[in-house]
From TrEMBL:
Keyword annotations from UniProtKB, A to Z: NAD, NADP, Nucleotide-binding, Translocase
Known function: The transhydrogenation between NADH and NADP is coupled to respiration and ATP hydrolysis and functions as a proton pump across the membrane.
Name of this protein: proton-translocating NAD(P)(+) transhydrogenase
GO cellular component, one term: plasma membrane
InterPro entries the record matches: Ala_DH/PNT_CS2, AlaDH/PNT_N, AlaDH/PNT_NAD(H)-bd, NAD(P)-bd_dom_sf
Keyword Nucleus assigned: no
Family the UniProt entry places it in: Belongs to the AlaDH/PNT family.
MF (Gene Ontology): NADP binding; oxidoreductase activity; proton-translocating NAD(P)+ transhydrogenase activity
Signal peptide positions (record): none
Naturally occurring in which organism (per UniProt): Marinobacterium aestuarii
Source lineage: Bacteria, Pseudomonadati, Pseudomonadota, Gammaproteobacteria, Oceanospirillales
């Protein structure tokens, strides 16, 4: 298989799709790799490291694309990120396929084969290819550091000659991959951590990272949807949830929200009134800002001061930790590529394989992935 790693065009993206270690592993398996010059520089991987690992460095995007069967970049969520690709070439990247599924009709007509990483199924054999978990891990960790930086207080309890400082109270809303990582990070910094999730299964996981689960008087029987994700809750449920959450929020110094429903707008867990009832100096980091926000007041990509509260809506936090985020992402892609190779190191797209069937959005002029076909009706 002839593969090329492109320099990402997506604004603010600093990750690279493969690190030199992944290149070495793929070369050892018989792949031929080209890397666009500078593709890994922002993540700390200079061209020379890719050469040592067995890749050829090419000067331009055009040279990287020409003659390659598979093109890799981190983020191809805009059509502009696919500029220069020709019919028959396969691009593997994040593509945000559940937000604007209609754009794939035109891309299918261009004859591109597009594999969207967001659609990797949540089955145990695909766990090592799950880039969403990698991204969420980094985002949960970084959200706590951002909150610690913005807060007017420190996290741990300190008994000093100048008196005792109480530990920060941190509350995590949505205890999936990002939320559990945020809870563990806040705990390591010495905070008193509580967490809540709509899925009953999250309770044990919250306890396992040293946090205290918050229970609400709400039905949990319909909370879990397909594939371990949360099911979308109705407006009544969310209204009752906000009502009961107001008192919990009013006691917190830091709130980190991560609640998401795949393919839908993020649920609104925090209303403007709830923000107004919080302690002055409190910080909210809304990790669902990209999907509309868990707080009604969140503005994607902005930090605001509201009633003395700092409200942050960061975007693409993984790109702010490009070295380790690329290391995780690259390993996920390496595992996926190794899965797609036949014994002679040729690309083999087997549509009887759930991993291929679920993730390949377009191929040979058709929309393939079931979840995207459903959305397009
Ligand atoms: P996610 O990013 O879709 O959502 C984040 C969290 O928000 C979830 O835990 C969800 O339950 C929660 N949430 C949704 N609506 C909520 C509401 N109204 N109130 C409170 N919380 C709400 O999910 P995720 O973090 O990617 O993963 C969710 C689960 O899937 C986790 O248990 C995770 O361990 C599991 N998982 C499995 C695999 C696999 O098997 N391959 C891979 C990754 C994650």
């Amino acid at each position: 298989m002839k593969l090329s790693v492109l320099r990402d065009l997506y604004p603010g993206e600093r990750r690279v799709a493969l690190t030199p270690a992944n290149v070495a592993a793929l070369c050892a398996r018989g792949c031929e790799l080209r890397v666009e010059s500078g593709a890994g520089v922002e993540a700390g991987f200079a061209d020379a490291l890719y050469v040592d690992a067995g890749a050829a460095i090419v000067a331009s995007r055009g040279e990287a694309i020409a003659g390659s069967e598979v093109l890799l970049c981190v983020n191809a969520s805009r059509d502009a990120d696919l500029d220069g690709l020709s019919a028959g070439q396969l691009c593997i990247a994040l593509m945000d396929p559940l937000s604007d599924s209609a754009r794939f009709e035109a891309l299918a007509e261009r004859g591109l084969s597009l594999l969207a990483l967001e659609l990797v199924p949540r089955i145990s054999r695909a766990q090592s290819m799950d880039v969403l978990s990698s991204i969420a891990t980094i985002a949960g960790y970084k959200a706590v550091l951002m909150a610690a930086e913005a807060a007017p207080r420190i996290f741990p309890m300190m008994m000093t000659a100048a008196g005792t400082l109480n530990p920060a109270r941190v509350f995590i809303m949505g205890a999936g991959v990002a939320g559990l990582q945020a809870a563990a990070t806040a705990k390591r910094l010495g905070a008193v951590v509580e967490a809540y999730d709509v899925r009953p299964a999250a309770r044990e996981q919250i306890i396992s990272v040293g946090a205290r689960p918050i229970e609400l008087d709400l039905p949990t029987d319909a909370a879990e949807g397909q594939g371990g994700y949360a099911a979308e809750q109705g407006t009544d449920f969310l209204a009752r949830q906000r009502e009961q959450m107001t008192a919990v929020l009013a006691q917190q110094d830091i709130v980190i929200t991560t609640a998401a429903i795949p393919g839908s707008r993020a649920p609104v867990l925090i209303s403007a009134e709830m923000v107004a009832a919080m302690k002055p100096g409190a910080v909210i980091v809304d990790l669902a800002a990209e999907r509309g926000g868990n707080c009604e007041l969140t503005r994607a990509g902005e930090t605001q001061q509201v009633h003395g509260i700092t409200l942050m809506g960061p975007l693409n936090l993984a790109a702010s930790v490009p070295m380790h985020a690329s290391q995780m992402h690259g390993r996920n892609i390496e595992n996926l590529l190794l899965h797609l190779l036949d014994k002679d190191a040729r690309l083999q797209l087997d549509f009887d394989d759930e991993i291929v069937a679920d993730t390949l959005v377009t191929h040979q002029g058709e929309i393939c992935a079931g979840r995207i076909r459903e959305r397009l009706g």
